[in-house]
Amino acid sequence: MILITGATGKTGSATAKSLGEKGERFRALIRNEEKKEGLESLGGEVVIGSIENTDVVNQSMQGVKTVLVLLPNSESQLALEKQLVDSAKQAGVERIVKMSSIEATPDATSPIPKLHLESEEYIKQSGLAWTMIKPNFYMQNLLASAGTIKDQGKIFLPMGEGKTGMIDTTDVGTVIAKVLSEDGHESMNHEITGPEILSFYEVAEIFSKALGKQVDYVDVPMDAYKETLGQFLTNQWHLDAVIDLFKGIAEGGIEDKTNTFNELTGETPKSLSQFLAENSFIFKS
């Protein structure tokens, strides 16, 4: 039995769908009872409860061999992930698969990569078998710019000339489901990017071609962008952490794509052009 957390988010739901298509038995621990039916339709069992509730977590671990640790970034994330690992070990779980980040390296200074790295180390010290899934920038993050792309033909972000290896969350879900459902991935860090390393100026060019209209990238000063983002992210820790991530991209981001997706699946990850072809209606007036 596989236990997945974060099953109602974009990556978690893609993972659940892929597991369902494989016919794999899985259990999902979720808060929102309204999402129960959808997961059950994929063949999953559902436990309703909060990840903060130790009794519910312990209950969800019964009979489980592999646990997916996939939690939203938050100030309490590290403590909750450690709690999951402790519960898994107590329940006799054999392996932890953790959603981490390609930025989670020993020299990381940003809060989110640092907490991912500390969680990774905690898992490695637990004695359980482990696999880390480490993507870069999600294409779905661009959905937040849909309004300005439709209305003004502009993408307002503070990324400078920095580059990312954008990947679709559905591709990440495919990789996670594969790792969860088979052996041979123990003690591995699967770093995943899409097929291109792109600056946001290049992203704007791809949008222009896909939408058939001019789309420009506007490099917003970081302080000004933080002030705007603060209207939507009211938690100060989360706001500061996201801005720190963006600073990392603006300072250069990543330079090299990985072939991990192809090596694991035998397929090519979705390009940004393909993503836009599938989702163009979101960005068009």
Brief overview, please?
The chain is of the alpha/beta class. 45% of the residues lie in helices and 16% in strands.
What topology emerges from the helices and strands here?
Layout: E1 2-4, H1 10-22, E2 26-30, H2 36-41, E3 45-48, H3 54-60, E4 66-69, H4 77-91, E5 95-99, H5 111-125, E6 129-135, H6 146-152, E7 154-157, E8 163-164, H7 169-181, E9 188-192, E10 198-199, H8 200-211, E11 216-219, H9 222-229, H10 236-250, H11 260-265, H12 272-283
Parallel strand pairs: 1-2, 1-4, 2-3, 4-5, 5-6, 6-9, 7-11
Antiparallel strand pairs: 8-10
Helix pairs in contact: 1-7, 4-5, 8-12
Which features would summarize this protein structure in a list?
two-stranded parallel sheet; seven-stranded parallel beta sheet; globular; Rossmann fold; 11 strands; alpha/beta; 12 helices; 16% strand; 285 residues
Describe the structure.
The protein has about 280 residues and is α/β, with parallel strands linked by helices. It has a domain at about 1-135 and about 170-190: Rossmann fold (3-Layer(aba) Sandwich). It is built from twelve helices and eleven strands. It has a seven-stranded parallel sheet, sandwiched between helices. α2 (about 35-40) links the parallel β2 and β3. α1 (about 10-20) crosses α7 and α8 (about 200-210) packs across α12 (about 270-285). It is globular.
